[in-house]
Every structure is written in structure tokens, then in C-alpha cells.
Amino acid sequence: MRNIAILFKVELLEAIRNIKFIWLTIFFTILGVTQPLIDKYMEVIIQNVGGIDGIMIDPNAPDPQANEVLLATFSGQFNQIGLIILVISFMGMIANEKNSGVQGFIFTRPVSSLEYISSKLFGNWLISMVCIAIGSIVSYFYTIYLFDYYSITDFLLFLVFYNVWILFVISLAVLFSTIIKSSIFIGVATILLSMVFLLLGNINETFSLFLPSGVLTLAESLLLQTGSANFLLLIAPIIYIMINIFTAKFFINQV
Known about the structure:
Helix content: over 70%
Oligomer: single chain
Number of domains: 1
Structural class: mainly alpha
Number of strands: 0
Distance between the termini: 23 Å
Shape: globular
Radius of gyration: 20 Å
Strand content: under 5%
Number of helices: 11
Order of helices and strands: HHHHHHHHHHH
């Protein structure tokens, strides 16, 4: 545990040195306020960019509920643009150290491959969680300001399960980092496979039981409060994360 703590601290110090906490937080905050603005002022936006001729807008359509706007923020902003930028921010976490020889130096110390992988996984997860959480909280308060009230406790519970998905994405990047040398190809592979899981997860809830993206179905049901939540959807992502970790351990030991 001591080695993990030391390497974990190094990851955090590196993120601070590269101002990753700052620019990622700003980025997710901008994403977080974009969707509420679009949902609230869509008609005004359309009028200012060319008018509403030929576009049918129902004047009697009710404003969306706050939880619907929050869900759109995560599914439309965080899980698309946000996911791409997040993966880009940590896609070279292992490959760069491998290519520069830093990884070889670390393994001359009494550090196991599992300790090394764990520090990378949880270090980048914490960085991601902090930045996403700040952007999400800003989005939450801005959304309830523009629309209506929604329980912050329920929203935070949603955020907890959403971050399980983020942990899976990072574990996927860790796995590809032990197999692929190019940071760009690591990022592309991680993004593409994550998007595939997201698309497959939209088929139905039963199918989601076998996918890591099933936890997003669980988070969505909690946010929208549509019936009883199926917590069995939490099993698959945990299994996938463990598989990614130990597969990464296998490949890194082959070097």
C-alpha cells in the first residue's frame, strides 16, 4: 500500500504541475452550463442565428424538468465531447513512461506491476472525479436556477454511479496503454470501444446487465426516478474493471 500511495501522490503532483485540475475543471464546467442554456433559450438562439422560418416550435410545449436537463447534460455533453477530452488527457499515462524509460526505472524499485497499474488507475480516476464533480455541481445549481428544484442528494447519488463508468473508461485506457505504444492509438481505441458500449447499452436493460455501460442505465433510472432501480447493473462494470486491471498486469509483465 505504501508504494501505491507514493505513486498515487506522484500522479496528483504531475496533474497539478500540468494544471490538469484547472483546465479539465473549466472544460467540464463549460459543458455543464451549455445544455441548460440550450434547453432554456433554444428559441432565442435560433432566432439570432437565422430565424425560425421552416422550424416548428410548439409554443405550448412545457419546459423540461430539471432532472431531464441534467440527464441530457451527461448523455449529450459529458458522454460525448467530455469523454473524448477526458481520454485525451490521460491516454499516455503508461505509454509515455514506457517509451521514455521511466517505467523501467520504477520497476527497478520494489514496486509490483499491480501497484503501478493501481496507482495509475485510481490517480487518474480521482483527478477525473474532482473535475467532473465540480463541473456537475455548477451544472446542477445552474439547472435548478433556470428550471425547477431537484434533490441534490438524488443528483449526488447519480454522480456516484456515473463515476463507476468513468473508472471503467480509465481502466480501459490503462489496458490499452500496456498493449499499444502510441498514445494516439490508445486514445482512439479507448474512445471507440467506450462509444460502442454506450450504443449497445441503449438496446435494452436486460442486455445492459452484461455491459459496463449498464451502470449508466442504473444511474439514469435513479436520476429520472423511473420505477425501482436494478442494482444488478452494477455487477458487470466491476467485473470488466477487474478484468482490465489483471489483463493489463499480464501484458505489462511481458515487457
